[in-house]
Amino acid sequence: MVIRRSVEELCQADHEGDPAILEHWLANKTPKQVRAWIEAEPAGGFVGVGPAGIAGVGSLLPSGRIALNYVAPWARRQGVSTGLMRAMEQRAVEAGHTVCTLTSTITAHAFYLTYGYQDTGEPVRSFGGKPAFPMRRLVAPGS
To answer: Is the pTM of this model over 0.85?
Structure first.
């Protein structure tokens, strides 16, 4: 499953291989739970597909909050996350939002900054006490 492999293999800076942190982080990242999220908010689920199958998964909540943005390890740095972000932001604009928000991991923080997101305050604690960064970006034209 893309989400689990992304966390396990790409988010080392966030979990440092600690089994307790991984268990806590991955506890709700099961096929059954992901299916429930999609069924609850079908317009908010996004999938990036590449030559080897599913390359990334994203989720946009009705509030304009980006809840998931995970890329398969084999698809890292191939534009998958950027494509997912564009699609989620476009959907947010279509729903009337002018701002998208998210909370970034250490691993993804530089990506989001480069993409145009800004930190909105002090870091919060994530799984295992590591910092996570509340962020936002204006997405509607003229905002």
So the answer is: yes
